[in-house]
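Morning!

This is the sequence you dropped in the shared folder:
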Amino acid sequence: MNLVHRNTDQLFTSIFDDFFGSNIFDSRTLKRNDLPSVNILDNEKFFELNLAAPGKNRKDFIIELEDQILTISSESFTNNDDSDNFTRQEYRYGNFKRSFRLPDSINTSLIKAKYENGILSISLPKHKEAIPEPKKQIEIK
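The structure's back. Tokens below.
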């Protein structure tokens, strides 16, 4: 499974930002840091995509499939309550969008998703033809 490539900043700008730290007022850096982390498991019968998104509920997610591209997005608001007087506030439950190009081996009609304990799990079953046959011993006569 391949992550759909997107245009990023120039190489040197990215290297310097990563090394020296980002400017807190740079909206490009803030958007990049708000993307939820993803783990992808490749099993014999399916792929499983796990996206870490704590603080949301299942109604916050939109999962779409078009032309073998799976897009996961979330639109929710960030609570900016000034009455709490935070010294530091790192929780960001903002909007995001992640896209993945699915291989042809995925049976798209059987894709399932669930959200539990802050993890969005998407099961991507493979077509029966794509599942390798088990290893078997050939008897010699």
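Headline: Residues 53 and 81 are 21 Å apart (CA to CA).

More detail when I'm at my desk.
O.
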